[in-house]
Amino acid sequence: MNYFMEVAKQRAARMLWAKLVKPFEPKSPRSLALRAHTQTSGWSLAAEDVFNNVVRTCIEAMAATAAARSRCTPTRLTRRSLCRRISRRASHAIPQLVLQRESGTTHIVDPWGGSFYVERLTYELARAAWRHIREVEDMGGMAKAIEAGLRARITAAAGARKRARTARAAARCGSHSPASIALAMPPMSSTSRIWRQAALASS
Questions:
Q1: Structure confidence at residue 73 (pLDDT)
Q2: What is the pTM of this model?
Q3: What is the pLDDT of residue 17?
Q4: Region of residue 140 (left: phi > 0; alpha: psi -120 to 50; beta: else)
C-alpha cells in the first residue's frame, strides 16, 4: 500500500481519459471527466492484528477521495478475521461516512494538485501508460496485442517487480512487529465469539 502512488495512479487515469476522449470532440465538456468506481484492496489486509486492517482500508479509501473518484467501495474485512457484522459496520462507517462527512477531503476536486511529489508521480505513470497504449495501437488493437503475447509479457514483468518489492518490503504492523508491540490476540474462535457478543450487546 502506497498512499501517494494510489493518488497519482488515479490522477493519471483522469488525464489519459481526457486525452483519449478529446479527439472525438464531445459535445459536453463533462465527457472529459473520468467517472470511475474504486474498490479498496484486499491483498493489503493481514490476518495478524486484524484491527490494523480498519486503518489500512481507511487510508486506501482516503486515497480515492483525494484522487476525486466518483465512488469508492471499501473492501469488507470479514475475510481477515473480523466477524461479519462488525466487518460490515467498520468498512461502511469508518472509510465511507467518516471520510465523507468529517475529513473534508470530498470538498476539494484535486487536493494534491500542485504537489511536486504527487505531480511527478502522476506524470511518470501517465507517460508509462501512454507508451503502452501507443504500443497496443501500433500492433493493431488489443486483440492482436494479446495474440502476440504483449499482455503476458507486461504482466510477467510487473509480477517480477512486485515480488522483488515484497521481498524487501518494510515490516507490516502486527505481522513483523516485535512481540512487545504487537497486540496479543486470543485464538481465532475466541475472537469471533467475543466480537459476536459485543455486536449483539450494542444492537
A1: 61
A2: 0.71
A3: 93
A4: left
Rounded-to-integer distance, Cα 6 and Cα 67, Å: 8
Q: What is the phi/psi pair of residue 39, to 5°?
A: -120, 130
- Residue 148 DSSP SS3: coil
Q: Beta strands of the chain (E only): which ranges?
A: 37-39, 71-73
Per-residue pLDDT tens for 20-41? 999 999 999 889 988 887 777 7
Q: Beta-carbon neighbour count of residue 153 at 10 Å?
A: 11
CA–CA gap between residue 37 and residue 73 (Å, rounded): 8
d(CA 77, CA 75): 6
**CA 58 to CA 96: how far, in whole Å?**
8
Q: How many CA atoms lie within 13 A of 1 on its CB side?
A: 22
Terminal CA-to-CA distance of the chain, rounded, Å? 34
List of the chain residues with pLDDT < 50: 80-81, 178-189
The strand pairing partners of 71, in sequence order, are: 37
Q: Residue 159, Cα to own-chain centre: how many angstroms?
A: 17
| CA-based nearest residue to 103, from 81, 145, 72, 125 | 72
Beta-strand ranges (E) seen in 124-197 are: none
How far is the C-alpha of 96 from the C-alpha of 188, rounded, in Å? 27
The whole-angstrom distance between residue 181's C-alpha and the CA centroid of its chain comes to: 27
| Cα separation, 164 vs 186, whole angstroms | 33
